[in-house]
From TrEMBL:
Family (UniProt): Belongs to the sulfatase family.
Sulfatase N-terminal domain segment(s): 54-383
Cofactor: Ca(2+)
Name of the protein in its database record: Sulfatase N-terminal domain-containing protein
Top-level taxon in the UniProt lineage: Eukaryota
Coiled-coil boundaries: none
Pfam families, sorted: Sulfatase
This protein's record includes keyword Kinase: no
Key words, A-Z: Calcium, Glycoprotein, Hydrolase, Membrane, Metal-binding, Transmembrane, Transmembrane helix
Length: 633
C-alpha cells in the first residue's frame, strides 16, 4: 500500500474536491495503519531479539552411537545435560548422518551428498592429498554473508595439503583443533595406519591454533581444551553479531590404538558398575562430553545469548563396536557398525534446542532428516533464502521443525561407494541395501546397556548428580519437560520379531539387494525384497541415476612427503610453500602440481632404514616427555 493517488485527472471542480477528500482520507488511513503497526511492534516485539539472526551452536560428537547416551538407550551411561536439552527441545527420531567422519562432515558443511564431493569411499588419512573441493562455498562462508562470526573448535578432517584447505581459509574466523581423523586425548598426536608398505604408520602432533602449531597444551585433556576454548569464544563474543560455533569434539572416537580412549581416573571410577573396563572408559569419555554440553550452555546463559540461540547436539556417524578397532560403543538394538549402511551406522542421536521453536512441551520429531539438511535449514533460520545456495541435496527443514509439518525430504541416498560396491537408498518407509555391507559387521552388537539394570532409564537416576542444563533452564523459567518417564519410554528403539539369528540369514546383499520397512522394522530383521520386487528395481534405478552424477572418489594413499616425520613430527600442510621440504624418505609423491618431487628412497645419502630408526627413536623420546604430564589411569 502506498500513498500515491492520481488526483489530477478530474472532469470538474466537484469531482476534484471529492478526489482531494478521498486522497486525504486514504493517506490518513495509511499513516495511522503504519503508526498502529509500529506501536504493535513496540508493544510485543521489544525485548525479543526476533529480527536478529540466531546464534547457532553446533556440538558434534564423534562416533557416538544411539545406545551411548541415556536419552536414547539404556541407563548405562547417564548424560543429564544432553538429556535435559532433548527433554526440553526436539529430539530428531529419524535423523541420518553418513557412515563415516569425512563424508559426514563434508555433507554437513556443503549440503551435498558425498558422491558429489569425491568423499564416498573413505575418510582422509594423515598426509593424504585429498580435500573438500575448494570450489565449494561452505556453511561458514554462507553464514558470513548474513553477518555471522564463525568459529570451529576441534576436528576438521576435510583435508590440509595446503593452507587453503584448512578451516581458517574456508570461512572460519578461528580454529583451535586438529586436521586429521583423531588425536590422543592427552598428547594430541596421531599415530595412523597408512597402508603403505615401507612406512605403514605416520605419527605426529596435530594441534593447531589457526595456522600455528599449538605446543603448550600437551597433557591437557582434549575435551576440556575444546570446551574451554568454546567458553572463551562465547565470553568474548560481540553479541551484536550472530555467532556460529562448530564444536567438533574428539569424544567418543578412539585415539591412537595403543592408548585408544582415555579419561581422568576419577571419572572412570564413577562407572564401576560397568564390568568391561574399556566400556567403562568409554562411559567416562561420554560423561565428560556431556559435561561439555552443560558448560557451553551455561556460558551462553552467562552472556545472555540463550534466548536467541539454537543449540544442537548431533553425532557424525554410528559407534565403532569392534574391539579390534578400539571400539566400545553401542548402536544396539540397531543393526551394524560405523562404516556400514545399516541403521546402526547412520541413524543417529540428534537434538535441536531453541526458544525460537516456541515449544510449549517437548517433542519427538518424526520428520526424515539428513546431515545435508543443516546448511539450508540454518541459512533459512538465519533469515536467508535457501534458494540463494544453489543446487543442494539438502532440504530446508526449518518450517517442518517449527510447525511439526511433513518433511520435505521423502528419500535419501544413504551410501554409494563404487570401490567397495556398497549402496543403500531410502524411499519413504523403505530402504534398499545392496552389495558389500562393511567388513562383515552385519549383525547386532551390544552391550545392550541393560546389564545389571532391570528396566529403562529413570529420570531420577540419570539426574542424580545434577545437570547444568536443567539448572539453567529452570532458572530461566524455560523448563518444559513433562512426563519424563514416558518420554524416555517413547525414545527407546523397539525391534520387532523375528529374532536376529533368523534375520541374519535372511539378507545376502552381496548377492541380491535387500529391502526393509524401516518404519515397521527399525532393526532391519526382515528382508522383504521378495515381496516387493518392483520397489527394489525402482530404488536400484534411482541409485544408478545418482551413479551417473558421481564424482570419482578422491581416496588415495598417503603422500610420502606428507609424513609428519618429514616435518619434525608435526602435522602441517605439507604441500604449502611455507612448509615444503624435500623429504628424505619420499617414495614418490602422489600429489599433483609443480611442488611434487619424486625422490627415490635409495637416492638419499646414507641407508634409509638407519635414518628411519633414528627418527623413531626421536619420536619415542618426544612421546616419553609428553607422557610425563599425563594423568595415569
Ligand atoms: C589461540 O590464538 C588466539 C589468537 O591468536 C589467542 O588469543 C589464544 O590465546 C590462543 N589459544 C591458545 C590456547 O594458545
Ligand atoms: C549391487 O550389488 C551388486 C553385487 O555386489 C553389484 O554387482 C552392483 O554393482 C551393485 N549395484 C549398485 C547400483 O551399487
Ligand atoms: C511399512 O510399515 C508401515 C508401518 O507399519 C506401514 O504403514 C506401511 O504400509 C509399510 N509399507 C510397506 C510397503 O509395507
Ligand atoms: C629412481 O630409480 C629408478 C630405478 O632405480 C630410476 O629408473 C629412476 O630414474 C629414479 N628416479 C629418480 C627421480 O631418481
Ligand atoms: C608439565 O607440567 C608442568 C607443570 O604443570 C609444566 O611446568 C611443564 O611445562 C609441562 N611440561 C610439558 C612438556 O608439557
Ligand atoms: Ca566419526
Amino acid at each position: 500500500m502506498s500513498c500515491k493517488y492520481r488526483i489530477w485527472v478530474a472532469e470538474n471542480i466537484y469531482s476534484l474536491i471529492t478526489k482531494i477528500i478521498l486522497y486525504l482520507l486514504f493517506c490518513a488511513m495509511h499513516i495511522s495503519l503504519k503508526i498502529f503497526i509500529f506501536l504493535l511492534e513496540i508493544l510485543f516485539l521489544q525485548g525479543h531479539e526476533i529480527s536478529k539472526p540466531p546464534h547457532i551452536i553446533f556440538i558434534y560428537a564423534d562416533d557416538l552411537g544411539m545406545n551411548d547416551i541415556s536419552l536414547r538407550g539404556s541407563p548405562q551411561i547417564p548424560t543429564p545435560n544432553i538429556d535435559a536439552l532433548g527433554l526440553n527441545g526436539l529430539v530428531l527420531d529419524n535423523y541420518y548422518g553418513e557412515w563415516l567422519c569425512t563424508p559426514s562432515r563434508g555433507a554437513f558443511l556443503t549440503g551435498k551428498y558425498p558422491i558429489r564431493l569425491g568423499l564416498q569411499h573413505s575418510a582422509f588419512n594423515v598426509g593424504e592429498a585429498s580435500g573438500l573441493p575448494l570450489k565449494e562455498v561452505i556453511l561458514p562462508q554462507q553464514l558470513k554473508k548474513l553477518g555471522y562470526q564463525t568459529h570451529i573448535v576441534g576436528k576438521w578432517h576435510l583435508g590440509y595439503q595446503t593452507k587453503e584447505f584448512t578451516p581458517t581459509y574456508r570461512g572460519f574466523d578461528s580454529h583451535l583443533g586438529y586436521y586429521t581423523g583423531f588425536i590422543d586425548y592427552y598428547d594430541h598426536t596421531i599415530y595412523e595406519d597408512t597402508g603403505l608398505s615401507i612406512k605403514p604408520y605416520y605419527f605426529g602432533l596435530d594441534l593447531h591454533n589457526g595456522s600455528k602449531i599449538l605446543r603448550n597444551q600437551q597433557g591437557k585433556y582434549a575435551t576440556h581444551l575444546f570446551t574451554e576454548t568454546a567458553e572463551q569464544i562465547i565470553r568474548h563474543h560481540d553479541t551484536s553479531k550472530p555467532l556460529f560455533l562448530y564444536l567438533a569434539h574428539v569424544a567418543a572416537h578412539a585415539g591412537n590404538f595403543f592408548k585408544p580412549e582415555q579419561a581422568p581416573p576419577e571419572v572412570i571410577s564413577k562407572f564401576k558398575y560397568i564390568e568391561d573396563l574399556n566400556r567403562r572408559i568409554h562411559a567416562a569419555v561420554i560423561s565428560i562430553l556431556d559435561d561439555s554440553v552443560g558448560t557451553v550452555f551455561r556460558a551462553l546463559h552467562g552472556k545472555n545469548m540463550l534466548r536467541n540461540s539454537i543449540v544442537l547436539f548431533v553425532s557424525d556417524n554410528g559407534a565403532e563396536v569392534d574391539p579390534k578397532s578400539s571400539g566400545h560403543g553401542s548402536n544396539y538394538p540397531l543393526r551394524g557398525n560405523k562404516c556400514t549402511p545399516w541403521e546402526g551406522g547412520i541413524r543417529l542421536p540428534a537434538i535441536v534446542w531453541s526458544p525460537l521453536l516456541n515449544l510449549k512441551k517437548p517433542r519427538i520429531a518424526q520428520q526424515l532428516m539428513h546431515v545435508t539438511d543443516w546448511l539450508p535449514t540454518f541459512y533459512r533460520a538465519a533469515g536467508g533464502d535457501p534458494s540463494d545456495l544453489g543446487s543442494l541435496d539438502g532440504f530446508d527443514m526449518w518450517d517442518s521443525l517449527l510447525y511439526d509439518s511433513a518433511s520435505p525430504r521423502t528419500n535419501m541416498l544413504q551410501n554409494l561407494d563404487p570401490i567397495d560396491g556398497t549402496s543403500a537408498f531410502r524411499l519413504g518407509d523403505l530402504k534398499v541395501v545392496n552389495g558389500s555391507t562393511g567388513n562383515g559387521f552385519d549383525s547386532w552388537y551390544g552391550p545392550s546397556g541393560l546389564e545389571r539394570f532391570n528396566g529403562p532409564a529413570t529420570f531420577e537416576w540419570i539426574f542424580m548428580e545434577g545437570s547444568v542444563v536443567a539448572q539453567v533452564l529452570k532458572k530461566m523459567g524455560m523448563w518444559i519437560a513433562e512426563n519424563q518417564r514416558d518420554t524416555y519410554e517413547r525414545l527407546r528403539i523397539r525391534c520387532q520379531q523375528p529374532p536376529p539369528e533368523i534375520a541374519y540369514n535372511g539378507c545376502h546383499a552381496d548377492k541380491n539387494p535387500c529391502l526393509f520397512n524401516i518404519t515397521d522394522d527399525p532393526c532391519e530383521y526382515k528382508n522383504i525384497a521378495d515381496e516387493y520386487p518392483e520397489m527394489v528395481a525402482k530404488m536400484m534405478d534411482l541409485i544408478n541415476m545418482y551413479k551417473e552424477e558421481m564424482m570419482e572418489p578422491q581416496s588415495k594413499p598417503s603422500d610420502s612427503e606428507g609424513d609428519p616425520m618429514c616435518h619434525n613430527f608435526l602435522v602441517v600442510p605439507w604441500l604449502d610453500p611455507d612448509n615444503y621440504v624435500k623429504c628424505d624418505f619420499a617414495e614418490g609423491s602422489t600429489a599433483n602440481g609443480g611442488l611434487s618431487l619424486k625422490v627415490n628412497a635409495t637416492n638419499s645419502e646414507g641407508p634409509t632404514h638407519i635414518k628411519i630408526a633414528i627418527h623413531w627413536l626421536y619420536a619415542f623420546l618426544i612421546l616419553t616427555i609428553i607422557n610425563k604430564n599425563q594423568s595415569v589411569r
